[in-house]
From TrEMBL:
Pfam family, one: Cytidylate_kin2
Gene3D superfamilies: P-loop containing nucleotide triphosphate hydrolases
Organism listed in the record: Phocaeicola coprophilus DSM 18228 = JCM 13818
Segments traversing the membrane: 46-66, 78-98
InterPro entries to which the protein is assigned, alphabetical: P-loop_NTPase (IPR027417), YczE/YyaS-like (IPR038750)
This protein's name: Cytidylate kinase
This protein's UniProt keywords: Membrane, Transmembrane, Transmembrane helix
Keyword DNA-binding assigned: no
Domain of life: Bacteria
Amino acid sequence: MIVALLIGCVILAVGIALEVKANAAMMAGEYFVKVITKRFHGEFGYVKLGFDVTLVAIACLLSLIFMSGIYGVREGTVVAALIVGPIVHFVSPYYNFLDKWITDPSLRQDIALQQNQHTIITIAREYGSGGHLLGEMLSKELGIKLYDKEFIRMAAQRSGMDEQYIVRNEQSIPSFWLKCILSKNSEQPLESSLSSDDVLFVSESKIIQELAARESCIIVGRCADFILKDYPRAVKVFCYSDLQHALTRCVQEYGIPRQNAETEIRRINRNRIHHYEYYTGRKWGEPHHYNLMLNTGTIGLQTACQLIKGVYQQYSLQPASK
């Protein structure tokens, strides 16, 4: 009986997830949950859990009031209310392969034609290696835009979040399945199934994809090397530095007190490692994922800039993919 109950809950959850994915004809209960999810930027599976538990509680209360006992609500009802929502939360990301069938074909074609026309430089960096300054130098040298802090404003506009919230949480957002929903060209509304924390990361990821389709540019951080891992014209750079040069840069350029600099370097690098590996499932700084690994502490930013410029120009001469 227990096995049959669990199988039934899984079948129900799979059906609900498909219903929400299709976003066409929905049952009243699921549509109500979706409206609440969209209004309060919640996650569909967990809102569904709260909704089901609330209905069970109301059913028990009304049964006690009008029938002096609990009727029609048994163990299976309670179990289903508790586990169907979390199962929906878990299985929903795996339905993104359906996007190629339910997204407008003409829209997919337009996006595909726009891609691969531009050369993108992504810069991942250890704190104190001068990655942002290197991006500024490249922007002036190559005449293309640099996107770093601009992502905060752009993500705020896209997600409807407060910019200060993004500044505080940009590298500490908890979620274990975000990488499953970063399928390219997905046109499903972000707020339909994500919490507010999840929306931030996905918003920045979508912005990166749109920038790559729109213009040649430089992107600092934001797991851009992973987001564009299949983009043939992405020059992926990782900047690192020995501790002494990093300390000097933090003190002289960032204004961090000498006694606090090493602690700050280790803290920020630890956050970046966690953030990157959490979402990508890949090791931060792994050489196989980058085109250039540059020790800016020993070769200097000017030399690093010229090296990247040479690779950028080489990539720009490659014919666009069809």
